[in-house]
């Protein structure tokens, strides 16, 4: 399978506050990206899937990556 790079934008709820996020990940499909977002936010922040709203998933070119960890992986 071909691995692509995606930029994901959205919001999540913690307490009474909404927080915006922008994340970049390598994955094989948009479905994989959604799963990674739900798993990582749930693990890190202890929130449920219904508290996470993904508003945009965009495939990006390697030269457009801004996340230093993803850059290092490339």
TrEMBL record:
GO CC terms of this entry: ribonucleoprotein complex; ribosome
Record-linked InterPro entries: Ribosomal_eL20 (IPR028877), Ribosomal_eL20_dom (IPR023573)
Molecular-function GO terms, alphabetical: large ribosomal subunit rRNA binding; structural constituent of ribosome
Domain Large ribosomal subunit protein eL20 per the UniProt entry, residue ranges: 4-57
Keywords recorded for this protein, A-Z: Ribonucleoprotein, Ribosomal protein, RNA-binding, rRNA-binding
RNA-binding listed as a keyword: yes
NCBIfam families recorded: PRK00773.1-1 (NF001981)
Similarity comment: Belongs to the eukaryotic ribosomal protein eL20 family.
UniProt name for this protein: Large ribosomal subunit protein eL20
Species assigned in the record: Methanobrevibacter millerae
